[in-house]
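> tool_call: predict_assembly(chains=two)
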Amino acid sequence: EAGVVQSPRYKIIEKKQPVAFWCNPISGHNTLYWYRQNLGQGPELLIRYENEEAVDDSQLPKDRFSAERLKGVDSTLKIQPAELGDSAVYLCASSLGQGAVRGYTFGSGTRLTVV
Amino acid sequence: GQQLNQSPQSMFIQEGEDVSMNCTSSSIFNTWLWYKQDPGEGPVLLIALYKAGELTSNGRLTAQFGITRKDSFLNISASIPSDVGIYFCAGRYNNNDMRFGAGTRLTVKP
């Protein structure tokens, strides 16, 4: 079974430019999460989807961040415009339901550097 | 921000030594989890704990869910070089989202 697939693995952009990350969850997983992991920290939740509905986006900086999960499968996370402080690893995870701890699988992440 | 205090921040040990790390919280959780993250990868689940007082092993790893539900520890026995990485604790209350600690970076010297 393929794991959670994220792309790109690395991205370097200049500040004020837009950037987008893509995530393909494990087949059949209806819950999808986007996390941000700053250097030397643990992951922090940005947004959680149940199928195509964003059910928790309270930590998403909505002035510049947006996300979508059309058709309840793949998801994209966008930043526009990017700021220097957005440099971090952006992790996607998926699970079979929000309470499913054991099946909670992370992707390898996208490392974003804003210069 | 982070709600879990994880310690130590980093450890340098000799191969074969045992390791202990812990996590404390100001609020209770009813699930504690321990993850390991290798460079350039996402965290991978090592052990999940569901009940206060529970002690669970996974090979050389042992973790316990504290009686107060506000703490947990992870022990690694007879460390080997591939144990190198960052270990994260995470706590969850009911079906709320997980909260992660800041991690313990483990270095194992051969």
